[in-house]
Amino acid sequence: MIGCGYVGLVTGACLAEIGHQVIGADQDQSKIAALKAGKVPIYEPNLDSLIASNTAAGRLSFTGDVGAAIRDGDALFICVSTPPLPSGETDLSALDRAARQIATESRSPKLVIDKSTVPVQTGQQLLRALSVYGRKSTVNFSVCSNPEFLREGTAVMDFLHPDRIVVGVENDKDERMLREIYQPILDRHFNCPIHATGCPPEAPPPFLVSNINDAELIKHAANSFLALKISYANLLADVCDRLSANVDQVTRAMGLDARIGPQFLRAGLGFGGSCLPKDIRGFIWLAERAGVDFNLLREVERINKSRVPRLLEKARRALWVLKDKQIGLLGLAYKANTDDIRYAPALDIIQTLLTEEARVRAYDAKAMERTRTIYPSIHYAANSYEVADGSDALIIATEWDEFRKLDWARVRDSMARPLLLDGRNLLDPQQMKSLGFEYHSMGRPD
Ligand code: NAD
User: Fold this and answer.
1) What is the model's pLDDT at position 424?
2) Among candidate residues 411, 271, 410, 265, the one with its CA nearest the CA of residue 330
3) For residue 149, which atom of ligand 1 is closest to its CA?
């Protein structure tokens, strides 16, 4: 694995779990030092135990010497970050660097598998870089695309029980090697570390083989469509807000239609994280460069960016002025069950509140350390009750299950004013109102 972030660590640990010999390599020496010391630098359910057991079994190791990992590997998975540039274009410099390292360090044939999300036609550039920088050696390189569809928060489960595995290849030999790598997952033939008593019966995942361009495009197309579904639900929420309808009822009924499906139809603060925001920007840029007007996705992006202002508009309406008010934030991660704060709505909320000189308290079981590096001056609380204590309003910014289970009567009693802004439609409006809260959510009648 070249790159030991969310994707590299999960892929590496899961491939080790199904029986492969895996080396995780990263240029970030502090990350590698932590992994070698048995500390997993990200929070992802089930990942720490998977890394620990496979490291102990000798199937998984980590190194900061990327060259050594390249020389040892037969199949090299590139899992480096591909962030957006200010123009929206995907920054492929980490991929380019990995390609140059592979070209110069390899001493034997390599199958180079791109798992990073990249614009269509990147595989061709990758192959060109490998042959140009590897011209002094006789090493043979094959390139293929193997986009990753895991979701943070359920990544291990998603990797071991995927809906599909997509590979973009140039020849049968590469297809065979990828099939061999994934065979235990395709056959459902491994001891699942999640379902201790056996996995529920399910059909094997389809193994979809295409050319490299198609595989690269599949990932961008899928993520953009998911973003579109979320923004659709959020725009419905705006309509519901104005016409006293309930978006939860509407999307629930919509989702029961098998042609639509229930997932990614929840109204709230919109999408964040490292994937959807950057992938739709990259896809818009790519389509427009190809002469296709993808205004549809620009709208998706616009709707998404209007979520935090919509919520704060509700806060202002209730609080009149924000200056000097104590606002408590429940949740910082961009979604539940992760510590990832990349493009998290909570960050935009904090920024606006600080600009308007409100006092901010926040709590998140997993994401406070990362947030502290960006906003060191806000008050980080030990738990939700400390956030509520003396607050003029509470904002739910992440749908962590623990917020659902709080003793809300205790929360109400400790607040300066029982105002609750539920940005994730996590709680039941009737129940909150009967507890005495002034309760506002997204697209549900106040
Ligand atoms: P990440 O930032 O968590 O991890 C990337 C890692 O790569 C970092 O640890 C970095 O130090 C390392 N790195 C960069 N260049 C390197 C090099 N030349 N040699 C060795 N290490 C290098 O990123 P991530 O979230 O794991 O995402 C990786 C890719 O996978 C991105 O393209 C992303 O879009 C895609 N993806 C992410 C997810 C997700 O949920 N996070 C899901 C599917 C696909």
Assistant:
1) 98
2) 411
3) 43
